[in-house]
Amino acid sequence: MSGAFERLSHVLPEESSVDAGGQLTIGGIPVVELARRYGTPLHVIDEAGLRRQMRRYVSGLTARWPNSEVLFASKSLPIVAMYAVAASEGMSIDVAGLGELVMAIEAGVPGARIYQHGNAKTTEEITRAIEYGVGTIIVDGRDDLHRIRAALPEGRQQAVLLRVIPNIDAETHESQATGGDTSKFGVTLDQAAELAAELRGDGQIRLDGLHVHIGSQILQTAPFGEAVRRVSAVGQFPVYDVGGGLGVSYVETDSAPSVEAYLDEVVAAARAVLPAQAKLLIEPGRSIIARAGVTVYTVTTVKTTGRTFVAVDGGLADHLDTALTGQRYSPILADRANAEPDGIVQLVGRQCESGDLLVDRAELNSPAVGDTVVLAATGAYSYSLTNNYNGARRPAIVFVANGRDRLAVRRESFTDFLALHDVAKEHDWSS
């Protein structure tokens, strides 16, 4: 069996390596040093690798279909720094909630480059989007149209796309599938054609085109091409947003499609069925940020009962995805990254749930209290799903590149944690 780093190199960040002392480095900085400086749990983002992946998408799509745009699906990592980096690399932004919109605004993203999603948009969300000048609202049904009309100032027109259900059940976890006929998102192909006819010539709402999305963590390219073909049946429009959902490699046996293979599939289908002059949009999220990010923990307990348990100072509060979807992840000891695993353990968190299992049957090299454990490919959705279970504080996020580290999100303090409870002091709770 080869060393851990060698086996996991295609899962770890692009700018990761092992230094002369055998320690894992990311962006030229030993991870153990980052853990010491910022504390753990800690999210570390390989900024150079992240930007490189963004450019693969932007330049790759432009080369294949010049009239195009790449949107960052920001729910995968909704932090102000991420919005700013994506915009600086020529990406527009996909937001799916008011908080995401607020952060995009805070990052200085122009309204024209923001696309508002959501299957249950509130009046407040739509009103705020229109006030800021959000370029496009993705309409999920008639209620969105009613709210848009009510919020629009007199004489103002709003561009929209209709979200269409393509009836494609892509192979992924059921919670991540969005294209089947039981999906809560969008309207049927027939309903889309009906709404499109109604909006033709509408003075307030300008229908630019269609949107389709079939799910997340999809490890085949064919369903993406089929989605393009299905949506084309509704008719010809100036804009087609064919969504995102390309999967990534989480463990050494995974073999996710490349960005190039994905783009080839989507564009080949577009050339076959879409108008040549149409604008083509895609929305990658997970495949932009997952590999670039890792989560860093400190081992707090090692014990053997029925099994050997290695417990760290994080868990369900900062990494919910294992419990939520059963996704497997790859751990590595930053202290001795090239050492061959010599045992199988249960890598668990510190939250009071038996389901707080980070990695089932994890292969590690003699883990001990004080060791630094890195969980690879956690850049997508880990921070998005962070919570305060058992009073845990939200971790910090640091971006690293070329030997420089920049704090993007500070660790939640107990002052922050208690701030929402200040109103309790106004009451006598003894009776």
Describe the structure.
The chain is built from 13 helices and 20 strands. It has 431 residues and is of the alpha/beta class. Strand 19 and strand 20 form a beta hairpin. The longest helix is centred in the N-terminal third of the chain and has 18 residues. The relative contact order is 0.17.
Estimate the global geometry from the Cα principal axes: globular
At CATH's second level, what is the architecture of the largest domain?
Answer: Alpha-Beta Barrel
Radius of gyration (Å): 23 Å
- What do the pLDDT scores average to? 93
Instruction: Determine and state the CATH class of the largest domain.
Output: Alpha Beta
Q: Which homologous superfamily in CATH is the superfamily of the largest domain?
A: Alanine racemase
Structural class: alpha/beta
Distance between the termini: 64 Å
The number of E-state strands comes to: 20
Percentage beta strand: 15-25%
> Oligomeric status of the shown chains?
single chain
Estimate percent helicity: 25-40%
Main sheet properties: 9 strands, mixed
CATH topology of the largest domain: TIM Barrel
Q: Runs with pLDDT <50, length 5+?
A: 170-180
Number of domains: 2
**Number of helical stretches of at least 4 residues:** 13
